[in-house]
Amino acid sequence: MEAGRVARILWVSREARPGAFPAGAYRVDTEAQPRAALDRIEAARAEDDPYAVCFAAWGQGWGREEVDDLFRTAPDLFLVLEGPADTLPAHDDLGAWARPDHCLTLPLPATDALRRSLAEHLSARWLQEEADRRRVALLEAEARKDRAQRRSHERRLQILYGIVEKLHGSESLEQALHVALGEMSRFLGATTGSLLLLDGPDRLRVVEAVGPRRERIRGLEFPLEDSRVARHALAERRPILVSDIQENGRFEDAEEGVRYRPRSILSVPLFGQDEPLGVLNFGGDDPAGRFGPHDERLVVTLGRQVAVALEKARLLEGLRRTVNESIRALAGAIEAKDPYTRGHSDRVTHYSRLIAQALGLSPAEVDVVVRAAVLHDVGKIGVPSAVLNKPARLDDDEFRLIQRHPEVGTEIVREIRAMEETLAIIRHHHERIDGRGYPDGLRGGALPLGARILAVADTFDAMTSDRPYRQGLPNEVAYEEIERCAGTQFDPEVARVFLDNAPRWPDLEPDAPETRAASG
């Protein structure tokens, strides 16, 4: 109840008439019929101006059923039942079917002073209880609000944690960005989400997007000048939050570079090493779902993680490029010593990639096999050129020198930290499935899958390539030899996948333009 509000009393009796109830610190309404009184009590509660006390004439239409209905309608109201002492219900009976602490009896006749005193006491008590109820309701509402805010905060943290996990743990940054934009858009209630990266100082490129226009705008490039919001976000180095563009004089006529102007805009600039990378944009069309400060803070946090992921991807790409250049240089060094095997590493790499993909390996696993294939023969750099280029078959001592090249190659590559995953493949690519290979005589499942793949690819190219002492074999003969040796020299599953697919790989031919071009 508001401060200073006066309690209401309803007097229900056939004798009830305005002005007949003794005046006091309360307002009095009168009603003759019990059912009409119950309707009035219910209406007063609906209008948030409830009655505090009801004086009712027992026996004049008032009975147990009416009392039950009253307390169902107004459980906090005080009821005073009036009547001759010998007609009023006993207190024990009231306790069985009414609220004994809110239901009293008043034997008639009663003086005005007694009625006034009882009415003022009960009114004051009701006002105090109502004030307590309001305070409790307010505290409960605040507690619910706090719980809702905590749940929202926890939900935001869960979303951010999930997104960060995907951004920094996914093999595909492109896929991780798509998932991150999608999850954040759904949480924000955004219609669209996009990541725009700078392509030079004055152009933007849409590298990823979610929403109904994704296929139309993904990959789109346009001048930075065409996106007023993104331009200002980057220039001012702070987020741009426009809750309703129709009420914003700064951006009300702005049309983004993708020719779409949402109702609500949130644009967060991305920076890496203090240099601008691009912007993270979200747009909404629902007037009831405008972006707010909480959304801004959430997207700023996401933007930092996206910037870190982009910088990490760039660093890894630079490292990968450096490693690949080093790998190619090492592979080139050995092929320079052995002109007859020039192009061998390129062809074996190509075959190994196709086999690994046909086996269903993941992109990361394929990459490890490919990098190992490029350097599988780097250990031959320690073999004398006279042995490598000998125009006849090798004797036993010379063959033992050749057999050391997997071990030597492993030690060379061990110095390249980024190639650690390839070491076992390089060392064991001359092992046999029956354990009669070298250098360690591994057999069966002890051989790394990459080494089993490389063994087939390496043998196939060796059989079909020209050597100083013989011409290369036709592909069909090489296929038959691999099939014959499946289960002894080669892993039968790898051999089967190779033989099932090799005839459908047109660029597998050793003299095909695609492979010969790779050898220079």
Describe the structure.
The chain has a 6-stranded antiparallel β-sheet, sandwiched between helices. Strands 2-1-3-4-5 form a 5-stranded parallel β-sheet, with helices on both faces. The protein has 520 residues and is an alpha/beta fold. The chain has 18 helices and 11 strands. The radius of gyration is 43 Å and the shape is elongated.
Write the layout of secondary structure elements.
Layout: E1 8-12, E2 27-31, H1 34-46, E3 51-57, H2 64-73, E4 78-84, H3 91-97, E5 103-108, H4 112-169, H5 173-188, E6 192-198, E7 203-210, H6 214-217, E8 221-223, H7 228-236, E9 240-242, E10 264-272, E11 275-284, H8 293-337, H9 344-358, H10 363-374, H11 385-388, H12 396-403, H13 405-414, H14 423-427, H15 449-464, H16 475-485, H17 492-501, H18 513-518
